[in-house]
Structures are given as C-alpha cells and as structure tokens.
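Hello forum,

I keep getting stuck at the same step: I have a sequence, I want structure tokens, and every attempt I make locally crashes halfway through. Rather than fight my setup again tonight, could one of you with a working pipeline run this one for me? It's a single chain of 147 residues.
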Amino acid sequence: NELGLAPNKLQSATPFMAPTIFSEVYDALTRLRHERSTRLSALQSTYPGLHYVILGLLAGSICTVFLMETNQELLIFLSAIQLRILWSMLIGTFSALAVVNYDMRDPFRGSYNVAVSVDQFYTIRETIHATIQMDQEDAEDDIDSAR
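Reply #2:
Ran it on my machine without issues. Output:
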C-alpha cells in the first residue's frame, strides 16, 4: 500500500479517525494512487529510438547542405571567417542538443533528475507514520487513565 502501513496498523488507526477525516484520507489516497500511476507511466515511457535516428539524420543533412552550399568559388555575402563562425555555431548547437537528448534518456541521472521530486513522498510517509504513532500512544494513555 502507498503509505507503507501493514493492514493491522491501518485497522488499528481507523477507530481513532472521525468519519469525515476517514473519507478525506480515502479521497487523498485515491488521488495519490492516480498521480502515482500517471508518474510511473511517464517514467516508464522512454524517448523512442526512431526519434534519435530522425534527429541524427536531420542534423547530418543540415551539415551536408551547409557544406555543399559553402563550397562555391564566389560567396557574395560571407567571408571565410564568417563561414567558420557559422560552422562552429552549427556544430555547437548539434552537440548541445545531443547532450540534452542523452541526458533525458534516464530520468534518475543527469540534470533532468526526478529523484528530488520523489524525496518529498518519503517525508510525507514519515509524517503520517509519526502521526499514527502519536495517536496510538494517546489512545493507549487514555485507556490507561480510564482504568
């Protein structure tokens, strides 16, 4: 279960909750399950390999066309240094795009890391465990004081 509670702990926590709180908790768990399934499906779907091939072919064709167009005797608008600068910018752009695509392949490594987003769920689970533990201790103290 999403909270990491054993069924016996969940049943022992149920009598201490008001019916409205119980329905709110149930609705929250339903929303959490839905969001979890959405998140898992997004993590399990990878960038298709065909897209990498298409991006590589597009980059190669742009470089080839650039080289073919600049391989002329007379270039009216650009000097040799301007062509070198444009070629460097073109190669730099393709290199940066390749690095971004490589980085996005695995959601648990690199700059586009989802591990930071997952850490907040551990905090929420620990808070819920602590709240249930405190409620159980308060209930046991109430029972002991009633005797």
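The first helix runs from residue 7 to 13. If your local run keeps crashing, start a new thread with the error log.
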